[in-house]
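Troubleshooting: if your tokenizer reports a length mismatch, compare your output against this known-good record of 220 residues.
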Amino acid sequence: MHHITFQRQIECALLLAAVATRPGFAKDETLGRLGKAATVLSNMEKGHGLRPDQIASADCIAIIPGFKKGAAVVGIGFGRGFISCRNDNGWSAPGAVTLESGSIGVQIGGEAIDIVILSRDKEKRAKLLSDRFAIGDDASAAWGNGKTAHEDSDAKILFFGHTSGVFAGFGLDGVTLKTDDSGNKALYGKSVSNAAVVAGEVTTPAATQPLLAALSTQSR
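Known-good structure output:
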């Protein structure tokens, strides 16, 4: 068995850093994630607990493709995605978000899990679009997986998760939704809040149309 030397680890880290900082990398990554989010939404609706009527009744929706548990610290989770809310013209342009957790129960084997979060409480919109929204502290929540949604009738936030691996469910304490400033800057060309994005204060990029079309189709 060959062991990677410390020097080689440093070289690999520097190479990854160089790639991540090259011009256009952040935008390419963000645009790629938009496509994945549209795919996740379509797949979730096809037999994985997320029904069109649930999307239709939601005020806001967040889609996090490829949420992962950290390899170094058991239980730590991180993912990046997008949030959209309803306005007079349908679903708003998507704002970039990150989802973080210190206690989420993710599947065995380190596989990624796709997550959809529905908010059914319009009064929570401002908080949901703020820099930091703590699910456990700011709203009650329930999770769903497979063909059973496990809905709590009192919950205002619904989680849906899907993976090809073994799914352990969610420990919702400590789950936090945050604004992804770098994602918004890559998508809209400037620093902008998610509240401003949802309010229509920025031009909706053509790259967001597949996701918005999927939202419109799934919520009919």
